[in-house]
Amino acid sequence: MLRPLSSAIKIDETEIQAAKWMPLEEFVKQPFIQEDHMFQKIMDICIQRLRKCYCGLTAHNVVSKFDGRQSTLYYNVGEPEDVNCDAA
Q1: Does some domain include residue 37?
Q2: Separation of alpha carbons 61 and 72, rounded Å
Q3: Phi and psi of 54, rounded to 5°?
Q4: Which end of the chain has less Cβ packing within 10 Å, N or C?
Q5: Position 39 in a domain
């Protein structure tokens, strides 16, 4: 969801050995992605966002039947049509 300021890559020799832009399909096949459950979930969210199928958490105002008080419940919606989602 981020956009680069430029396509030039400045390699920091103390931090990384190689840096390059690559297609998303190639990136998600990297072993460090495949072996890390949390990173896989992050990539799933990013891919869904690119496909305009993920709007993030949406605030929903609800009233409790127990005490009548209004609360805000945050959750993911099933379909992007369910909310005003601009995934441009």
Answers
A1: yes
A2: 5
A3: -140, 125
A4: C
A5: yes
pLDDT digits (tens, 9 = 90+) for 6-57: 888 777 777 777 778 889 889 888 888 888 887 888 888 888 888 877 777 7
Paired residues of 58 in beta bridges: 75
Alpha carbons 35 and 70: distance in angstroms, whole number: 42
Has residue 42 been placed in a domain? yes
Q: How far apart are CA 55 and CA 81, in angstroms?
A: 10
Q: Is the pLDDT of residue 87 over 80?
A: no
Domain limits at 42? 24-75
Output the CA angle 13-22-4, nearest 5 degrees. Answer: 75
Beta bridge partners of 2: none
Number of domains observed in the structure of the chain: 1
